[in-house]
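We close this part of the discussion by returning to an individual protein. In the encoding step, the backbone of a single protein was reduced to a row of integers, each denoting a local shape. The sequence in question and its structure tokens are set out directly beneath this paragraph.
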Amino acid sequence: MQFIKALLSGDFSQRSFLPRSFLQRNKGAGESVSGRLRVGIIGTGKIGVDLLVKVRRSPWMECVVFSGRNLQSSGMSYAAELGVAVSDQGINAFFEPRYRCDIVFDATSAANHIEHAQVFDRLGILAIDMTPSQIGECCVPALGMKEVLENKNISMISCGGQSSIPVAQVLASVIPNVQKLAVKSIVSPNSVGPGTLANLDEYYHNTKAGLKKYTGVSAFDIELLVDDVNPETRMLTSVTAYCDTVDMDALRLPLIAMLEKIQAYVPGYKLEHEPRLVEGGVRVDLSVEGLGDYLPKYAGNLDIINCAAIAVAEHYSQAVLASRQTKKSLVRHHSNLQLEY
């Protein structure tokens, strides 16, 4: 932490490449040779590697550094084999000119991101927080992404949040006077690492914060369970809205519309069956199967948050690249006018 504070005390210039709504971000990274936005990933575990695979598939981004602490780790080795620049300098790598970038995915831990966020903010890099650090502005792509262009730090909330919040928003908007929302997610033990287990309190807090932001409901029950019987179970999430009355017919079309929005970036997101009446309310059961890029398909809990993060990054990338292209056109136009004069 002392080293980070020392770095932050340095005189790094603040340069802006976008309108004021983008909050004076740094344009120092510049455009890559490929014309894509420069991206960094910190955290070389399974989530970081899967993000790397997804970034490499994107037409809007390229990964310029994959940073962690151990060059001999399986994640580092995988990235190196792909020809991606790797570093064992962790957060310090982002001060190197060759690794300067526009977007960073932080796939480390909540405690680490609290420190990392200061660095990314000082460097003017958009931070997409994969951890439950509770720092950034919550974002669920299916519910809009205006937050992405208005904030320097975007929280991907949690896997349970990404799977449940869109449906919870539909329930809260269609059903009058929802008294409480209950969210229960069941995941494979193979897709829950020590980082998740160490941050369970943050997971619950972040999921509740996201639910409150998008639904306006203030009472929640959140559960995250591991299926020890079936180690390859796909992610299952149930969302229950407790209420006095519900018009089941009125739910159908909004749910279908929301499902289509989510499937645009998480193809394996599905309703298990029609909404069901339960004691005291209505329940919607969902399942998530991953894309199978680096993670197994049953690890839908990890894949959904990564897919959501990529959707956020691509939205930002397109906006930045469009802004840069507009500026180039204006410069060319101005130069032509001077020549004519």
In short: Residues 1-28 have pLDDT under 50 and may be disordered. The longest helix spans residues 300-340.
